Each structure stands twice: as structure tokens, then as C-alpha cells.
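hey m, so remember when u said the C-alpha cells were messed up on ur end? i reran from scratch. heres the input so u can diff it against urs
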Amino acid sequence: MPVHILSIGEMMPAVDEALARQFAVHQAGPDNLADVLKAFGGKIRGIATRGRQKTDAALIGALPKLEIVSNFGVGYDSIDIASAVARGVVVTNTPDVLNAEVADFTVGLLLTTIRELPQADRYLREGKWLNAPFHLTQTLRDRTVGMIGMGRIGQAIAKRIAAFDVPVVYHSRKPQSDRSYPYYPDLKVMASQVDTLIAIVPGGAATRHMINSEILKALGPRGILINVARGSVVDQQALIEALRNGTIHGAGLDVFADEPNVPKELIALPNVVLVPHVGSGTHHTRAVMGDLVVENLRSWFAGKGPVTPVPEIHWPKA
């Protein structure tokens, strides 16, 4: 009898196709999830999720035979970890395989935001260069970058920025003993000492709105904020006000509070670069991520355990 897998969150078709070679795959969106659970809920033993639908306590509770949730992506804040742990359900993600891609992208977004490249592109396309040169912009040359988060991706970003001969400091839950960058235990203090912040921390309750009006005020009028973490990390309305009022100079955002819904008032601002959550969005990296989602499920049901369990799972079990 094949193992039944629930696929949710608009999983990549290639992942579903690869899973279907070995498993019975049931695709479900918000509109038909209840029907799928009614028909197959008692048989489903694994979930493959892209994180665009929540794997909450209700879903976990509706699947009595659930053993594993394989998440497409590093962040897994769409999964109720406490409920999974309480049930003994293993949760996996896709670390490391996207570190370089997201780090490259972050540097690109940083430079694009500081040098206002989209604005300059529009200026040329609208024929304004015929009348006057584009205005001078900020520069990376005289900046200090404060990293909010120094995990695997944060370290890859910091390494790239340091190669530009730009000072890097960081704030995280605890100092990294193997990192030479100056550490700030207090985010507000760090924000007051730098003019550029890059957020690369997990989402969830612990980091919700950690970048708020106080942090933005501390960052100051030359400040640039880059968010490649989760939309929840930033108080979005406070950011809009800060950009509108000149509390900070600009922002580059790959993530938003209610994706894919971006407020019109944010879109209307001239001093923000907005991209639709594409940090790891290349054919190469998404394919490797998808392979790891599949491999976690294959390995588990082959009796070999998970390949990349999240830290809360504490695998192997004692």
C-alpha cells in the first residue's frame, strides 16, 4: 500500500511529480482542504508544504497517522511546532541549499535600494533624462551595516558585505563565538550606531515587530532597512510612516506582512524598493530545495530518519 502524502501551500509541480512516483499525493488548497481531509485524513502520514498555508494545530489534529511535515524553505513559521512536537511529528526544512542564493540577492537588493536603480530605470523610461540628469544618490561607501540575525544565511550575507570593505556588526539572541564582527546584545543600541539594517531572522512570535518605530527612529534619517526575513519581523505601518516622514531614508523589501497583499500606501512611496518574495527564486535553487523536500520524505518512510530536521525536533530521539 502506498504512503499517503498531503501537499499544500502551492507546492512546486516538480515536487508533487517526484513525490507521486513513490507516494499517493493529495494536493489541497484552502478551498478543497476539508474535502481532502474528509476523504483521506485517516490515511495521510506525511505533509509536503510550501508554507503558503498553515500547518496549524487543527490540521495536525485532523491527521491521526501524521508522522512528518517536510517544509519547502528555511523558515517554517507557518507550522505549529509546539503541536507537532507534542504529537511526536517530525518537521524538516531546507537549510543551507539556499544560503548563497539569498545572500547574493540580499547584496543586490541592498545596492539597488541605496543607489535607487529602479527609480533611475523609471526616470529614463519616462523620458526625464532628456531634460535633466538623475539626482545623486546615497552610497555604500560610507556606511556601517548592522545585521539582525547571524545564522547561516546571515553569515553568508555578512561575508559578502565585508568583501566591499564595509564595516559589519550584528545583533542576535546570543553572540557567535566564531564570528569576528562586533556584537550588540541590544537592537536599539545597534540601530543607533549604524545607518543600514539587514533583517535575516526567523519569523514567529519571538521576532514579531522587533523592528518598530523606536528602532527606525534610532536608525535615523540616513537609514536604510533591508528585510529578507519575514514580513512579521517589521511593524509594517510604522515602516510606512517612517518612510513617509523621512524618519529613515529608504527600504528594500522582499517580504511583507500579508503576502501577496502589499498596501497601496507602501507601493506609492518613492523611497522603497519592493520585490515579491523572490530571494531564493531561481530555477537552480528552487529545484535543489524541492529535491530536499522529497528526500526528507523518502528517507523518513524508508526508515532512515529525516535528512534535515528543524532544531526543535532534537533528532535523533533519545
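this time it looks ok to me. The chain has a mean pLDDT of 96. if urs says something different then somethings off w ur setup not the seq
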